[in-house]
Specification:
305 residues
């Protein structure tokens, strides 16, 4: 077959691709990947179609597609679901949480990576080792200490002994957690390691402070990494369920709101599925806009010349 004549070398060589065995293996793997793709996409398609069905279509006879797929009916279903679900407050609070996570993830972790990479004060190697070591600690081990720390911040002790300030039911526990991400610190450090030290030395000769060097010089040069970290911080905030469940009481993010809708018997299944779609839209927009930057943020190169 002509399509195999100019195949680049992969798991099978070009010569093997021209044989019957090579073509059989190729199409076998192709069929497996298609089957996996269909199985992966099916839940999303099922959610989409169920969200636009009427209530009687769900609890009545089984149908895969909605009976009425006219644009006016689809818009009506969106408007009715939005009014009943009342996700406006949760969207706003999730947006505030996301923006705070983004600031702490980029600025605080970026400063930490800059100090460990370029400033290198005494004890920086020990600090870096401790940061790497925290990545080996399961999150379940830190759950109770983190909760106690936020309950009586910053002392994490009994109020009768040394009173602290409770940060529960505020955004601060989530924001502070983003500011101490070991993965992001290492990512920024590796990005700054690839930048020439001459930038820092030239700025110091001109009298620029370390903060100025970070924001005016190093920050723009590390833009691919910043975009990558920003994607993770923003999308992670929209998808985070356990953190808000642990720290929030009156505050309500979108995943937490959708979880609590399960106990509301007045919300039918089609509206619950519509809530899933509403919750996925921000993340979908983020990935559609920045999808080309995801891989580029990890493979950041050094400065030449």
């Amino acid at each position: 077959m002509k399509r195999f004549e100019n195949k680049s070398t992969t798991l099978l060589s070009s010569a093997e691709m021209k044989t019957f065995k090579g073509q059989f293996v190729y199409w076998l793997f192709f069929a497996v990947l298609v089957a996996v793709a269909v199985v992966s996409v099916f839940p999303a398609i099922w959610t989409l179609f169920t969200a636009f069905k009427e209530t009687e279509e769900i609890y009545g006879a089984f149908t895969f597609l909605p009976k009425n797929m006219s644009p006016s009916n689809l818009w009506r279903r969106i408007a009715e679901s939005w009014m009943q679900l009342q996700l406006g407050r949760s969207f706003i609070e999730t947006l505030i949480l996301s923006l705070g996570n983004w600031v702490f993830a980029v600025v605080v972790n970026g400063l930490a990576g800059f100090v460990l990479s370029k400033i290198k004060p005494k004890g920086s190697r020990l600090v870096f080792v401790l940061i790497v070591w925290t990545m080996m600690m399961p999150g379940q081990i830190r759950m109770v200490p983190n909760y106690m720390a936020m309950l009586n911040f910053p002392f994490a002790s009994q109020k009768s002994v040394m009173p602290g300030v409770s940060l529960l039911d505020t955004f601060w526990p989530m924001w502070l957690s983003q500011g101490v991400s070991a993965f992001n610190v290492i990512l920024f450090k590796n990005a700054f390691d690839g930048l020439s030290q001459s930038y820092v030395e030239a700025a110091q000769i001109d009298g620029c402070s370390n903060i100025g060097i970070f924001f005016k010089i190093m920050f723009p040069l590390a833009m691919p990494t910043i975009i990558f970290v920003s994607i993770g911080a923003l999308s992670g905030a929209w998808a985070d369920f356990f953190g808000p469940l642990l720290y929030f009481d009156n505050l309500e993010t979108t995943p937490l709101k959708i979880y609590r809708l399960k106990s509301d018997s007045s919300v039918h299944m089609n509206n619950q599925f519509m809530a899933y779609i509403f919750a996925c839209i921000p993340q979908l927009i983020i990935y559609l806009i920045f999808q080309k930057r995801i891989v580029g943020g990890v493979n950041i190169g050094g400065v030449k010349g």
